[in-house]
Design brief:
heterodimer; A: 419 residues; alpha+beta; Cytochrome-c3 Hydrogenase, chain B; 3-stranded antiparallel sheet; 17 helices; B: 313 residues; 12 helices
Chain lengths: 419, 313
C-alpha cells in the first residue's frame, strides 16, 4: 500500500450538524470514506448547574436537579433524594419506593424509544423513527397521567413521592402497556431480521469486552459488550431489591448489540412496571425529612437509561449543600468514542455517536482535558497564564505586555506553594 | 408553419416542458404523501411542492466565494434541460412519442446520465467538504447503478429488435405475452431508478445525517429551486420510461391513453415509495456490492434469456 496521507481531508462534524441533537464538535480526518483520526470536542453546553445547586436550599434544588437532563430527569432526582434521605437517616415508605421504580422504568421506556427513533434517523430509516416516536407518545401520556408532566415529572420529593397511583391509573397503564409490548416485540423482530438495518448496525462502533472495561463504559454500551453492569442489580436502590430485574447483556459489542440490549430492556421494563403495579404495597407515600441536612458526605448511584448515574453530596449541616457533583452516564461513555470512530466509515460516524445515546448538556463541566496527546495535566496559575498567552499569540494577539493587577498576589501565592 | 407550431407546442406545453414540470410537482407531492402515510404521518398539502418552489425562487441566491461562479450557476439549468430534452422521446398519450427515431433509447440513456454528472460537478465546484464528499459519492453511485439500469432497459429491445422507445412500445403492444419475459428486468430497473434518483436506500450521496445534503449543500434560492425541479422531472422521466417499456398497454383512444398513462406511472411511483419507506440507508460500499454482485448478474441473466427468446421467435 502506498502512502495515502496526501488524500486526507479534514471534515468538521459539528458543532452544528443535522446528525447531532446537541452541539458537540467532531473533527474527522478522512482517507476516502475511512476515518483515520477523530478529535472529539464537547463542552458547548456548560450551564454551571453544579455551582447553581450550591446556592440553593435542598428543597429548591429538587427543581434544578430534574433539569440536569431533559430525558432522564427522574433518575437524577432519585439519586439526589435518596442521598439526602440517607444522610438524614430517613427510611421512606415502601409504596413511595415502588412508585419511584414505576416512574424510573417508564422513563427508561421513553428514553429508549427516543433513542431508537434517533438511531433510525441517523441511518436514514425514517419510518422506524416515526413509529418509535409515535409509540413514545403513549409512554409520555402515561407519565403525564401519573405525574402531571410529560418530561421533568416533578414526582420526587425529599422523603418520598408527591403523587399516588390509584387503581384506575394502574388499570389504564396496564392497558397501554399491552399495546406497547406488542410494538416493542415488533421492533425486536425488526432489529433481528431486517437486512438493511442489520447491515447498517452490525460491526459499527465496535467496543469489545476488554475495551469497554478499559474505557469505563456504562449502561447499554457496557452491557452490549457482555458486561453485566447494572446498578439496579449490583446495588439495588428504591424497591429494586424486591422487584425481579433481569440484566440484559449481549456479546455483539457493536451498535447492533446496543440496539438489541435497549429493545430487550424495554420489554424488561414493561414486566417490571407490571410487577410493581400488581404488588404495590399500601400505605403512606411521604416521610418527613428535616430542612437541615446533617454534616457529612454521601455518594448515591442509580441506573439511568444511559447507564450508571452518580451523585456526590457534601453537606456542612446547613439547609444549603456545600458541594454537589453529578457524574452523568454519558460522561463515562465519551471516553471510548475516539476508539469507536477511528477506522470506521464516515457514513457510520453519526450512528456510532448516537449509539452511546449521548446527552451533551448533562455531561458538560468546566474541566480541561487535553485531547491531543491524551495526557492530563494540572495547570497552576502561572502555567494557565502562559497557556493563555501562547493561545492568543498563535492567533496573532500579544497580551504578554498587559499588566495584571493581581500579579503581586500571584507571586506571593507562588512563593507559598514553592515553600 | 402549422407543423412547426405543433412541434413547439409538443416540446413546450404538452407533453413537453410544462406538463413535465407540473406532473413532476404532482408526483413529488404524491411521493411525499404516500411516504408520510406509510410512516403514520399526515404529509404535506397538495400545493406544498409549488409553495416550496415559489418560496425558493424568491429567496436570495448565494454563490460561495471559492466556487466557480459560471459553472455554479449554469449547472442547474443544464440538468433541467437534459431531462426535458429526454422527455420528448418518451411515449405519453399514444404509442408514438412526440419525436422518435431508431436508437432514441440510447440518446435518452445518455441524457439521463447528465443530471448525475451535473450533480457531481455542482458539488465539485462548490468547494465545500460536504459537497465534495457528496459529489464523489454521486459519481461512485453512478458507476454502481448505471450498468444494471442500462442492461435492464436495453434487454427488452433485444426481443423487439428496435432501439427506439416508441418502436419497443409498439412491438410489445402487438405481442403482449412477451411483456412477461421482461418482468425481472422491470424490477431491476425500478431498483436502479431508486439508485439513480438517490432515494432510500440509495440516498447516500445526499445523506442528511452524514453530509447534510451532499452536492447541493452550498446551493440556495433560484439555483436550488431549478435543481429540485430537475430532480422532480427526472422522477417523471424515469417512471414514464419504465411505463413505456415495461407496461406497453394502449387503447388508441387519446383520453383513455392519457388516463392509462397516469395509472401506470402512479402504480410505479407507489412501488418506489414503498421501497423508500421500508429500508434504512445503505453505506456506499454496500450499495456497490449490491449493484455489482446482485443486480448486474441478474440483468445479464435477463439479457441471455431475451437472446434465447429472440432466437425462438
Amino acid at each position: 500500500m502506498s502512502d495515502n496521507s496526501s488524500n486526507r481531508i479534514v471534515i468538521p462534524l459539528g458543532p452544528q450538524h443535522p446528525a447531532l441533537k446537541e452541539p458537540g464538535s467532531f473533527t474527522l480526518t478522512l482517507e476516502g470514506e475511512k476515518v483515520v483520526n477523530a478529535v472529539i470536542g464537547i463542552g458547548y453546553n456548560h450551564r454551571g448547574l453544579e455551582k447553581a445547586l450550591e446556592s440553593r436550599t435542598y428543597i429548591q434544588n429538587l427543581y434544578m436537579i430534574e433539569r440536569i437532563c431533559g430525558i432522564c430527569s427522574h433518575t437524577h432526582s432519585v439519586a439526589y433524594c435518596q442521598a439526602i434521605e440517607e444522610m438524614c437517616g430517613v427510611e421512606i415508605p415502601m409504596r413511595a419506593k415502588y412508585i419511584r421504580v414505576i416512574i424510573a422504568e417508564l422513563e427508561r421506556l421513553h428514553s429508549h424509544l427516543l433513542w431508537l427513533g434517533v438511531a433510525a434517523h441517523e441511518i436514514g430509516f425514517d419510518t422506524l423513527f416515526m413509529y418509535a416516536w409515535r409509540d413514545r407518545e403513549m409512554v409520555l401520556d402515561m407519565l403525564a397521567e401519573l405525574c402531571g408532566n410529560r418530561v421533568n415529572y416533578g414526582i420526587n420529593t425529599l422523603g418520598g413521592v408527591r403523587r399516588d397511583i390509584d387503581d384506575n391509573d394502574a388499570h389504564e397503564i396496564k392497558k397501554i402497556l399491552r399495546v406497547l409490548h406488542n410494538q416493542i416485540s415488533y421492533y425486536l423482530e425488526l432489529a433481528t431480521n431486517e437486512p438493511t438495518l442489520i447491515a447498517r448496525l452490525a460491526d459499527v462502533g465496535k467496543l469489545n469486552h476488554d475495551d469497554a472495561l478499559k474505557f469505563g463504559a456504562v449502561g447499554p454500551v457496557a452491557r452490549a459488550a457482555g458486561i453485566a453492569n447494572d446498578v439496579r442489580k449490583i446495588e439495588p436502590y428504591a424497591a429494586y431489591d424486591e422487584v425481579p430485574v433481569n440484566v440484559i447483556t449481549d456479546d455483539h459489542g457493536d451498535v447492533l448489540g446496543r440496539t438489541l440490549v435497549r429493545v430487550k430492556e424495554m420489554l424488561e421494563s414493561i414486566s417490571i412496571i407490571r410487577y410493581c403495579l400488581d404488588n404495590l404495597p399500601a400505605g403512606e407515600i411521604l416521610a418527613k425529612v428535616p430542612r437541615k441536612v446533617p454534616a457529612g458526605e454521601m455518594i448515591s448511584r442509580t441506573e439511568a437509561p444511559r447507564g450508571e448515574n452518580i451523585h456526590y453530596i457534601n453537606s456542612d449541616g446547613s439547609d444549603i449543600p456545600y458541594r454537589i457533583r453529578v457524574r452523568a452516564p454519558s460522561e463515562a461513555n465519551w471516553h471510548g468514542m475516539k476508539h469507536m470512530l477511528e477506522g470506521s466509515f464516515l457514513a457510520d460516524v453519526p450512528i456510532a455517536i448516537a449509539a452511546i445515546d449521548p446527552c451533551y448538556s448533562c455531561t458538560d463541566r468546566a474541566i480541561f482535558v487535553n485531547s491531543d496527546n491524551g495526557e492530563s495535566r494540572l495547570y497552576d496559575w502561572k502555567g494557565l497564564r502562559e497557556y493563555s498567552i501562547k493561545w492568543h499569540r498563535d492567533r496573532g494577539l500579544n497580551i504578554a505586555d498587559i499588566q495584571i493587577p493581581m500579579a503581586k498576589n500571584y507571586i506571593q501565592i507562588q512563593r507559598k506553594t514553592n515553600d | 408553419m402549422i407543423e412547426a407550431l405543433t412541434a413547439l407546442f409538443k416540446i413546450l406545453i404538452f407533453p413537453g416542458f410544462m406538463f413535465l414540470t407540473t406532473y413532476g410537482m404532482l408526483l413529488q407531492f404524491l411521493d411525499r404523501k404516500i411516504y408520510a402515510r406509510l410512516q403514520n404521518r399526515f404529509g404535506p398539502p397538495w400545493y406544498q411542492p409549488l409553495a416550496d418552489f415559489l418560496k425558493l425562487i424568491g429567496k436570495e441566491t448565494i454563490v460561495p466565494t471559492l466556487a466557480n461562479k459560471g459553472m455554479f450557476s449554469t449547472l442547474p439549468v443544464v440538468s433541467l434541460a437534459a431531462v426535458s430534452t429526454a422527455f420528448v422521446y418518451i411515449p405519453i398519450y399514444r404509442m408514438q412519442a412526440s419525436f422518435s427515431f431508431e436508437g432514441d433509447l440510447i440518446i435518452v440513456l445518455y441524457l439521463m446520465a447528465l443530471p448525475s454528472i451535473t450533480t457531481f460537478l455542482a458539488g465539485w465546484y462548490s468547494r465545500s467538504v460536504y459537497a465534495t464528499i457528496g459529489s464523489v459519492r454521486t459519481l461512485t453511485q453512478l458507476f454502481a447503478y448505471e450498468v444494471p439500469l442500462f442492461a435492464a432497459l436495453l434487454s427488452p429491445s433485444i426481443i423487439s429488435g428496435s432501439w427506439s422507445i416508441s418502436g419497443m412500445a409498439e412491438f410489445y403492444y402487438h405481442n403482449p405475452t412477451l411483456i412477461l419475459v421482461n418482468l425481472p428486468s422491470m424490477f431491476i430497473a425500478l431498483i436502479s431508478i431508486q439508485g439513480k434518483l438517490a432515494r432510500k436506500p440509495f440516498d447516500s450521496p445526499e445523506a442528511e445525517t452524514e453530509i447534510v445534503s451532499g452536492a447541493f449543500v452550498e446551493y440556495s434560492g433560484r439555483l436550488l429551486a431549478i435543481f429540485k425541479m430537475s430532480v422532480d422531472c427526472e422522477l417523471v422521466l424515469l417512471i414514464s420510461l419504465a411505463a413505456a417499456i415495461y407496461i406497453p398497454l394502449f387503447t388508441n383512444i387519446i383520453v383513455l391513453d392519457i388516463l392509462l398513462y397516469f395509472a401506470k406511472t402512479l402504480v410505479l411511483l407507489f412501488a418506489l415509495s414503498i421501497f423508500k419507506a421500508a429500508m434504512a440507508r445503505l453505506r456506499m460500499d454496500q450499495i456497490i456490492n449490491f449493484c455489482w454482485k446482485v443486480l448486474t448478474p441478474l440483468a445479464m441473466f435477463q439479457i441471455i434469456i431475451n437472446l434465447i427468446v429472440r432466437g425462438a421467435l
